[in-house]
Amino acid sequence: MGAGRAHHTSTLLATGEVLITGGLYYKDNSYLDSAALYNPGTNNWAPVGAMHQPRAFHQAVRMDSQTGAGKLLISGGENSSQTLSSVEIYDPDNQMFEYDPQQEMKTARSHHCAVTLESGEVVVIGGKQSDGSVDGTGEVYQYPDGFKEQTFNLTQARMDHRCVSLAGGEVLITGGRNAEAPPRPVLKPIGSVAAGISSEDVVAYPGTVDRDAAGVGDAAADIDLTARRRPAPEFFQERFPQLEYLVVAEVARRYVTQVLNAAGQERLQPLFDVFAPPFLFY
Predict the structure, then answer these.
(1) ∠ Cα 75 107 77 (to 5°)
(2) Theoretical Cys-Cys bridge with 21: which of 35, 151, 155, 246, CB 3.0 to 4.6 Å?
(3) 76: domain CATH number?
(4) Helical residues (DSSP H) of the chain, grouped into ranges
(5) How many domains, the chain?
(6) SS3 content of the chain, % helix, strand, coil (to 5)
(7) Quick one: 14 exposed, middle or buried, by C-beta within 10 A (0-12, 13-18, 19+)?
(8) What are the tens digits of pLDDT across the range 3-60?
(9) For strand 230-231 and strand 202-203, is the pairing parallel, antiparallel, or unpaired?
């Protein structure tokens, strides 16, 4: 595919080829504007023209072969700076993306769904708005004129849902969520040790040792490799209100133990030999 990517789109063209667009490259957290075309006959990928804006969490649907000439409508999404209201048209004949700033959606949205109707129109539904709120509206696109002025409302706002076109011009909308997921701790490596919470989340006990001398890595503060450090109970209560503290603590403890064992850091194991999971922090 060229670049590794997630949260991209993959759409079957009338030719039998598959077009992938955009996405998020997690290695450096960059949003992609690139696209690639897969040919099942040759089992090869080939790059095509780039989109005008990098985007992920967007939608790409093939329009009707008569009213939309088999072109693709790429709608919305987000990048490092904003949630997008723009749309782009992919033309399979010249393998290029067309962008018209006059044909933007009424609402910037990502995590939405889009589907082509029997009439050839494309409907985009729901999603996440620029301010992080969940959208409860839909818009209709007609090629080549753009989006209609009139929008419609859902009975429930939703994002990360699915929609499919039914006979008679109806659309079935399923699932999704209507609120952002609660914040949760993120474990990430520092040297060969896992870390993921700040000093405000930690209950520490007296005693210090030079962290650099211990081979753990750069740090602004020293840390005691024999002292017990564990997240304060509030850390879990705020992030996992639906779970019992002991269950979450045990899961986290096992995860950190696996990280240590994989890294061969047996000398640091005493730091983690408490029931409530301790963490190194920076």
Answers:
(1) 35
(2) 35
(3) 2.120.10.80
(4) 233-239, 245-263, 269-272
(5) 2
(6) 15, 30, 55
(7) exposed
(8) 899 999 999 999 999 999 999 999 999 999 999 999 999 999 999 999 999 999 999 9
(9) antiparallel
